[in-house]
Amino acid sequence: MKSAKAKITSSILLILGLFIVGYFVNVMLQSNDGYASEADKDKKRIEVSKYPGVDLFTEITEKKNYNMAIHYPKFKSDKLNTEMEGYAASVKEDFLASVEENKEYIKNHAAALSLAVEIHPVVENMYSIVFSEERYVVGANAQQKAKVYIVDAKKSDFIQKTEILKDTTQNREQLYALINKKFKESKEYSPFLFEDELKIWATDPNNKFNGMYFTDKAAVFQFDKYEVTAGAAGMPKISIPLDEMQNLLTDEWKEKLQIENDKKDEKDESKNNSKDKDKPQEDKPVKDDDSPKGSKRVALTFDDGPHPKNTLKILDLLEKYDAKATFFMLGNRVDFYPEIVKEVANQGHELGNHTWNHKDLTTLSKAEGIKEVERTNQAIKSAAGREATAFRPPYGAVNKQVQSAISSPAVLWTIDTLDWKSHNPAAILKIVQENVRDGSIILLHDIHATTAEAVEPILKYLHKEGYEFVNVSEL
Q1: Residue 303 catalytic?
Q2: What is the CB neighbour count within 10 angstroms for residue 257?
Q3: Using CA atoms, how far apart are residues 455 and 461, in angstroms rounded to an integer?
Q4: What is the torsion angle, in degrees rounded to the nearest 10, for the CA atoms of residue 325, residue 330, residue 334 and residue 335?
Q5: Mean pLDDT of 327-349
Q6: How far apart are CA 329 and CA 332, in angstroms?
Q7: CA-to-CA distance for 130 and 40, rounded, in angstroms?
Q8: Which of 1, 275, 323, 341 could bridge across to 469 with cysteines, CB 3.0–4.6 Å?
Q9: Cβ atoms within 10 A of the Cβ of 356, count?
């Protein structure tokens, strides 16, 4: 009897154990990117970028009293990732602590944090990683800071500025003269320069030039707000061509920047030539127009992209239903995925400007707001060959100053699908079904995989209801 009971008990424990193991295996399979749920995956995403060996981590959070947009690179190296993740985490933690500390004063505006990143290839496997942090909690002005890393992705190591610059008193004096000259030549920055502060900055032996980084053509000096200029200048950036910096570089880096860049230029030129020769010139097939063109029109709009997978999936669905849409793009993502921007344009969709870093423009100075928009316009034009024709302010935040700074009207929306919140295709479709009418502007986000899943049901429903899909400018 005891033996039979023992066997039954053992069987139950075995089944229970298998169930528990199966459950955790299933969770692991569904969360193989390190996040626990589909909603979390959409809020925190890792995407392949155009830079070899570098992916892009994105976290966007929208709460009642604060908004955050955080971006940083992901490498194949634990050492590099630990530093990048640690820096981003410290910025986020400090911001949230400030929000908590000032929560009783946060009334008219939500607090905002933008941590953007730019990646500049220097030579093969070497990159300059430039963070721009901007936060607004309370008070009259946003805080702006920069953080720079130069990394060797192949060696999984950081490159110190002292390895690149010959740090002598004479060289510091020469560097001051070069930067001062560039400041005075700049119409944008010269009225705000504090020359004495710049002199102190350049000649202070304790200054390790933390804001200095390199591109393949220039040395760039990124200054914090108020560091050497008045606040109206924002975070000034001064570029000095490499040939003007020759005497300040170590022999190793003089050779590296000259020889390796020459090789890189030759490779790029031959690659571009072969692309032009080999690429077949194909005309796009003309589709039969079987969609019901009536008096009812609707505009689908997609914010915060482009995305390397979701945007392409959405483009295929739009083509299937002969639909046109407007894509309001972030400049920092345009920089990572220019080929996606070009594809959006090639398929006849409207290109929209959603600023560079998704900052709340009502918290910025007029000059800073203009810079956010103009920089994005330039990136879109460079990628697509034509400019954006519509503008949407992040968070829908607009006031008289913002509108006076932007040449085109701010395009908002009439239907918020809350796709960023629900991450549920059925819930997204339901909101559209319950609210759509002639002239509706529907807000979606092509950075979410669940939104891409919702697009076909939305298109199918609206097509059946007799709607014509147009871009927002046509409305």
Answers
A1: yes
A2: 23
A3: 10
A4: 180
A5: 93
A6: 9
A7: 26
A8: 323
A9: 25
Token code pair at residue 238? 């001064």
Angstrom distance (rounded) from CA 346 to CA 248: 45
- Residue 467: its pLDDT value, please? 95
Q: The pTM is what?
A: 0.56
Nearest CA-CA partner of 331 in 357, 352, 370: 357
pLDDT at 265 exceeding the cut of 50: no
- Measured in whole angstroms, the distance separating CA 200 from the mean position of its chain's CA atoms is 34
Any idea which residue has 């345009």 for tokens? 334
Task: Check 354, 358, 445, 448 and give the catalytic one.
Answer: 445
Cα 349 to chain centroid distance, Å, stands at: 21
Mean pLDDT across the stretch 191-205? 91
Compute CA distances 268 → 116, 128, 160, 365, whole Å. 28, 19, 28, 40
- Looking at residue 255, its pLDDT comes to 83
- Which helix (H) or strand (E) segment is 91 a member of? helix 78-101
The answer to whether residues 470 and 324 touch, using CB atoms and an 8 Å cutoff, is: yes
Catalytic one of 42, 224, 303, 419: 303
Residue type, 162: T
Give the whole-angstrom CA distance, residue 353 versus residue 305.
10
Helix, strand, coil abundance in the chain, percent, nearest 5:
45, 20, 30
Question: Which of 139-143, 298-302, 420-424 ranks highest by mean pLDDT?
Answer: 298-302
